[in-house]
Design goal:
This protein has helices spanning 4-16, 31-42, 58-67, 71-79, 96-102, 106-114, 129-135, 142-150, 168-174, 178-186. It is mainly alpha-helical.
Length: 203
């Protein structure tokens, strides 16, 4: 549950529509550190178009079809026994679920979750699917999918940090996703948690 301080910060953020402005003078980053923070957030979780050629396995084919948004092909491969979590990109370590959430494909993400995709898998930078959901540029449906990830069926840790100490809350706040911020706080995320560069989610 959110504390009184957290609730007050969220209420003010909602009223002002300026989540990033709610920083005390002692914690406000310098222009240089703010720029570095933005660049850091924009890079996570991240996967460039795959450059690796994969053997023609069903799991690899499902990963590629899911990333491309080909729902019919994904369903067909699942019916043929392909695993929703059986393949990860060789370079980024991103699973099909990471990819779908990062690109805002909430319907595809739900399909993968319904077929056993791991909601707690980590990529090579330590990002979970919840990080990918928070980092996506597409805001529509982010909170709804995150609620599925955080629900009883999966119980994803809302406070999990990646290798840079960045939590999903850092990313959700950076991208101005107030609904997702509220949801993460409701599930235990802390507004004063610091990443490895000593920045809180409001920085």
């Amino acid at each position: 549950q959110a504390t009184g301080t957290q609730s007050r910060i969220l209420r003010l953020a909602s009223e002002l529509g300026l989540l990033k402005s709610l920083i005390s003078p002692t914690t406000r980053p310098t222009p240089r550190s703010a720029s570095a923070h933005a660049q850091n957030c924009d890079k996570m979780p991240i996967s460039a178009p795959p450059k690796t050629s994969y053997p023609p396995t069903k799991d690899g084919a499902l990963w590629a079809a899911a990333r491309a948004g080909k729902e019919a092909e994904v369903r067909a491969l699942l019916d043929q026994g392909a695993s929703a979590s059986g393949h990860a990109d060789a370079q980024s370590g991103a699973t099909a679920l990471h990819e779908c959430l990062l690109h805002g494909m909430s319907k595809m993400a739900r399909l993968l979750l319904e077929h056993g995709a791991s909601a707690s898998a980590r990529d090579r930078r330590g990002n979970t699917p919840l990080h990918a959901c928070a980092a996506a540029s597409v805001t529509a449906g982010a909170a709804a999918v995150a609620e599925v990830l955080l629900g009883d069926g999966h119980k994803v840790d809302a406070t999990a940090a990646n290798d840079a100490g960045v939590t999903p809350l850092h990313l959700a706040a950076h991208h101005g996703k107030l609904d997702l911020v509220r949801l993460l706080v409701k599930h235990g995320a802390e507004l004063n948690v610091l990443d490895r560069q000593s920045r809180d989610p409001l920085a």
